[in-house]
Amino acid sequence: MEASTAAIEGAADEQPVSLIKDWYIGVLIYIYIINIIGVPSNILLMVAYIKHPELQSPTNILIVNQGFADLMSLLLIQLYGWLNYTTAGLEFTMQNKYLCLFCVCTLFLGAWSSLFNLLALSIDRITAIQFPFLYARVVNELLVKKLLTLLWIFMISLLSLPIFGLNTWRPGIPCTSSNVLRKEYLVNFFLLSSFLVLLTVAVTNIWICGIVINKRRVQPSGEETQQNKSQFKLTKMMLIVVGLFYLCWLPYTIVTLILVTSRSWLFPGGVPEGVMVINEFSKVVVITNGAINPAIYAWKSSTFRRAFRKTLHLPIQEVSVASGAGRNL
C-alpha cells in the first residue's frame, strides 16, 4: 500500500515536467523577440502622441488606443508564456485558480480590444471618405474618447465573467482557455462574436477599397484636394494594418475552431503533436501585428515619422514637395 501511494505521489510530482515539450523553448524565444520589438515601439507611439499636438486627432486616438491594447497583449503574453511553457509556471497555475483565470481573461481582453478597435478604425475611415462633411461636423476627440471608455467598460464586464464563476478550472489542469473556460462561453460567446467582428471588419474594408478606387477614378490624382490625398493615404495605411491583423489572426482562429468543435471526430486517438505545435505557435503569432504596427505608421505616415524622430531626439530629414505630398497625414 505504501509503495503504491509513493508511486502515485511520484507520478503526480512528475506530471508538470512531462507536460513540458522540447519545442516550448521555441515559443518562448519567439515571445521574447516580439516583445523586444513591440514593447519599445508601442511605448514610443503613445509618448509621441502625448508630446506632439500634430498627432492629436480623432483617428490617431484610435491608433494610440490600438497601441495601448497591443502593448498590454505583448506584456501579458510574457506572463502567459511563463505560466504555460515552463515547469514552474505550470505547477503554479495548476494550483492557483484566480491567477490562471486572470491571465486568460486579460489576454482575451487584449485580443478583443485590438479587434474592436480595428472595427472602430474601419468605421472611422469609411465615414471620413464616404461622408467627409458629416465626419468633419460630428467626429471629434471628445466623442471618440467617450466611445472608447464605454467600449473598455463593455469588454471588461463581459470578459470578467469567468473570474466570477463561469469557468471549469480544476487543480492539476494546464491553464489554457479550452481547459478553464466553459465551452459555451468560449465558442458561442467569445469565438463566435470575434468571428462576426472579423467578418464585419473584412466587409467594411472591402467596401472602403471599393470607395477609394471609385473616387480615384472619378477624381484623377492631379485634381485631388490636399485633404482628400491625406484621407486616402491614411486609409491605405489602415488597410495595411487590417491586412496584417488578418494574416496574424487567421491561423489561431482556424486551429482553435477545429480543436474546440471537431477534436473528437478529427483526432479520435488524440491530437497529434504536430497539430499542437501549430496551435501553440498560432497563439503567439497573434501578437506579431501589435509589434509591427508602429513600424507601419512610421513607414506610411510622414507625420508619425517626424513625431517619432523628434521624440527620440533624432534629426528630422527635410523632404521635397514631390515626396512630401502627404505630409499632413
UniProtKB/TrEMBL annotation:
Localisation: Cell membrane
Keyword Secreted: no
Sequence ranges assigned to domain G-protein coupled receptors family 1 profile in this UniProt record: 41-297
GO CC aspect terms: plasma membrane
GO molecular function terms noted in the UniProt entry: G protein-coupled receptor activity
Gene3D superfamilies, per the entry: Rhodopsin 7-helix transmembrane proteins
Transmembrane segments: 23-50, 62-83, 98-121, 142-165, 185-213, 234-261, 281-299
Coiled-coil positions: none
InterPro entries: GPCR_Rhodpsn, GPCR_Rhodpsn_7TM
Name of the molecule in the record: G-protein coupled receptors family 1 profile domain-containing protein
